[in-house]
């Protein structure tokens, strides 16, 4: 899904030669409108907001307020500038400055940040709508209609003024190996779905809302995940699908009528019997020994595993492949996440670096094609997670900030994880 919003060229400003409404003075020409030489909304800020913010901040979207007009942006001008200057928005946790280059990087450039800062300093000037020009981005490929549309067996009834994590099993079945070339999740009510994690496996949702292996993460404004031409993700025969939803209706009144939700997972797949040129799998690298004492400010977890174990080609065994991305996962106490490959000669190759973790934004990060990492059997995969367990670090549940407690590994949101899903890609001819 492409970010919402309009990129249509707006109507121009009123004609400066139009009648000023009074009789002119003989020999004098109409005074042209003042032209701004500074930063304005239409010329500088609007193109960035439309490209990076309107996937969420539109009427009925998941953002707390729309930002699709000058008046709307001006009303929250200070908050908007603060959110972008501190890089809280747009949500993008990975720092690629000393790591891999990432596809669809949502972070604003330093030049764009400087524009927002100058715009505020100059008083949030609107400017002339005729100066607006949209940011032109690469168009997503035309992938046609999805092959599979899966939903929960029945709609889930949301609760007003409430925040919850709910695991729902989907009605799709896979009697044979299925190769997915693209996927997305379409919330029935975007404004109530904060994020969702799609998983596949032979297990089903437990009482704690846990799922099996994560294959896709949805966040507000997410686009359809389309793999490179010739690539496809394997869903093994016999798998079942489940989605863990983070629903948030806290902005509604207690007792208000809220709808049911039956969001849809969409999969684009290869025809039955057809195999891809390159197959994609995921390896879940996790530490089950997490131990975070109350008051700890720099607790750590992680570990290392030989690539011969981490590599997961279909059918098992070993095959030379590539690492094309990482999906980090921790809970509320997480501070930072780092994953790297150590070569036999001791050289370390950074895969993902998240210096400031925020569990509200569970994102998939894919490397640009020129930055994928070739794997060798002698490689070691290393993962590092850091946590803080003070009173200020605790999540808010039902409007009440929780008290710190000794925390271990677990699937519940009150537990913790140090989990990195590593995306591997293999040539089919090598399997």
Plain-language structure description:
Strand 21 (396-397) and strand 22 (400-401) form a beta hairpin. 35% of the residues are buried. The protein has three domains: 41-131, no CATH class; 141-276, Copper type II, ascorbate-dependent monooxygenase, N-terminal domain (Jelly Rolls); 277-431, Jelly Rolls. Strands 1, 4, 7, 8, 11, 12, 15, 18, 19 and 24 form a ten-stranded mixed beta sheet that branches. It has 431 residues and is mainly β. The protein contains five helices and 24 strands. Helix 1 (41-52) packs across helix 4 (110-121) and helix 3 packs antiparallel against helix 4. It is globular. The longest helix is centred in the first third of the chain and has 12 residues, at 41-52. 10% of the residues lie in helices and 31% in strands.
Overview in brief:
This protein is mainly beta and 431 residues long. The protein has three domains: 91 residues, no CATH class; 136 residues, Copper type II, ascorbate-dependent monooxygenase, N-terminal domain (Jelly Rolls), CATH 2.60.120; 155 residues, Jelly Rolls.
């Amino acid at each position: 899904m492409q970010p919402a919003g309009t990129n249509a060229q707006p109507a121009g400003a009123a004609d400066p030669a139009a009648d000023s409404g009074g009789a002119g003075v003989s020999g004098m020409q109409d005074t042209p409108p003042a032209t701004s030489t500074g930063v304005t909304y239409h010329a500088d800020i609007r193109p960035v907001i439309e490209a990076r913010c309107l996937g969420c901040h539109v009427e009925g979207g998941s953002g707390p307020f729309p930002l699709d007009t000058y008046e709307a942006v001006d009303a929250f001008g200070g908050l908007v500038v603060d959110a972008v200057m501190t890089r809280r928005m747009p949500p993008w946790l990975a720092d690629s400055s000393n790591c891999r280059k990432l596809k669809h990087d949502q972070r604003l450039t330093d030049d764009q940040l400087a524009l927002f800062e100058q715009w505020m300093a100059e008083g949030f000037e609107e400017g002339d709508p005729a100066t607006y020009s949209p940011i032109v981005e690469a168009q997503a490929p035309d992938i046609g209609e999805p092959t599979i549309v899966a939903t929960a067996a029945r709609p889930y009834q949301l609760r007003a003024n409430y925040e919850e994590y709910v695991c729902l099993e989907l009605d799709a079945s896979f009697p044979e190996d299925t190769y997915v070339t693209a996927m997305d999740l379409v919330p029935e009510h975007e404004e109530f779905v904060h994020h969702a994690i799609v998983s596949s496996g032979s297990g089903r949702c437990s009482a704690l809302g846990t799922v099996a292996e994560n294959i896709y993460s949805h966040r507000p404004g997410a686009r359809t995940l389309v793999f490179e031409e010739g690539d496809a993700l394997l869903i093994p025969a016999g798998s079942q699908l489940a989605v863990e939803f983070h629903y948030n209706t806290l902005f509604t009144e207690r007792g208000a009528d809220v709808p049911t939700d039956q969001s849809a997972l969409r999969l684009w797949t290869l025809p039955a019997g057809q195999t891809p040129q390159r197959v994609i799998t995921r390896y879940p690298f996790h530490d089950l020994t997490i131990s975070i004492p109350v008051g700890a400010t720099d607790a750590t977890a992680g570990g290392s595993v030989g690539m011969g174990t981490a590599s997961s080609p279909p059918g098992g065994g070993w095959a030379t492949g590539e690492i094309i991305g990482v999906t980090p996962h921790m809970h509320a106490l997480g501070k930072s996440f780092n994953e790297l490959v150590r070569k036999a000669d001791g050289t370390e190759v950074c895969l993902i670096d998240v210096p400031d973790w925020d569990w509200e934004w569970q994102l998939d990060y894919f490397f640009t094609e020129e930055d994928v990492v070739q794997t060798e059997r002698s490689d070691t995969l290393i993962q590092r997670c850091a946590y803080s367990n003070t009173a200020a670090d605790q999540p808010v549940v039902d409007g009440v900030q929780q008290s710190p407690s000794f925390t271990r590994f677990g699937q519940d949101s009150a537990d913790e994880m140090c989990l990195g899903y590593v995306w591997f890609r293999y040539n089919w001819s090598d399997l």
